[in-house]
Design brief:
It is a single chain. This protein is an alpha+beta fold. Helix content is about 20%, strand content about 15%. It contains four helices and eight strands; from the N terminus they run H-H-E-E-H-E-E-H-E-E-E-E. The strands form three sheets. Strands 1-8-3-4 form a four-stranded mixed β-sheet. Strands 2-5 form a two-stranded antiparallel sheet. It has a two-stranded antiparallel ribbon with strand order 6-7. A hairpin with a 5-residue loop joins strand 3 (about 175-185) and strand 4.
């Protein structure tokens, strides 16, 4: 430094300056090579992964359990086979006889089956038959009509005189017994009922009227029962001597 101030500067020889430049250039080249190698060798920075949002759906419900199996039916005992008279004999027959023709054949060759219905269908099914409908109820009996008014009194065709009781004769009892008689379709008296009584004369009057006969009463072409009133009179005239 003092040399510069005083003006006495000594210059280095030229060949030293060239060496310095060459050395500096070499150092710069080395540094550049190191930097380049470092840049090339070092891996580039790994980019950050983008954030992804995932939605997890709920799992489906489990399937319903299978229905329980129905219990298997217990094996039924084998039904016994009914034996009939046509079963094979235990012992072999002594002789073989031809089969007999079927019996109970009608003219058309139809076998009569027990429990069949007369006039049934040929080739019907053997077994329980439907019960026949019950017969219709008998017609209700018509009530007897009463003689009188429009219905004229029928003619008396047969008359029996009552027997005068001896007790009534001895007691001098006279009178009229009034009876109600029901006559059937043939004109015969069925029942007799006393409407007005005269003590000991009632039985004689009833016994006599039960033997009477009348002509039938016809209504609309049909004979009908009828009711009529009968008066039986007892008189002592001509009985006493």
């Amino acid at each position: 430094m003092f040399d510069l101030i005083t003006g006495k500067v000594q210059h280095a020889p030229r060949h030293q300056a060239v060496s310095v430049l060459v050395s500096s250039a070499a150092q710069v080249a080395i540094v550049a090579a190191i930097v380049t190698t470092t840049v090339l060798v070092i891996d580039p920075p790994i980019p950050k992964a983008a954030m992804m949002m995932a939605f997890v759906a709920a799992p489906p419900p489990p399937p319903p359990p299978p229905p329980p199996k129905a219990p298997e039916p217990a094996p039924s005992a084998p039904k016994p086979v009914p034996t009939t008279g046509a079963a094979a004999p235990v012992e072999p027959p002594v002789s073989i006889e031809p089969e007999r023709p079927p019996t109970d054949l009608d003219d058309e060759g139809v076998v009569d089956v027990a429990g069949g219905v007369p006039g049934g269908i040929i080739g019907g099914v053997v077994g329980d038959l439907e019960p026949l409908p019950p017969p219709p109820p008998p017609p209700a009996s018509r009530r007897p009509v009463r003689v009188g008014g429009v219905i004229k009194e029928p003619a008396l065709t047969y008359r029996v005189e009552p027997v005068y009781p001896g007790v009534a004769i001895s007691a001098n009892i006279e009178g009229t017994v009034i009876l109600e008689a029901i006559v059937n379709e043939d004109g015969r008296v069925e029942t007799v009922r006393v409407l007005r009584s005269v003590s000991v004369l009632d039985r004689a009057a009833v016994d006599a009227v039960k033997q009477w006969r009348y002509s039938p009463v016809i209504l609309n072409g049909i004979p009908e029962k009828f009711i009529l009133t009968v008066a039986v009179t007892f008189r002592l005239e001509g009985l006493k001597k």
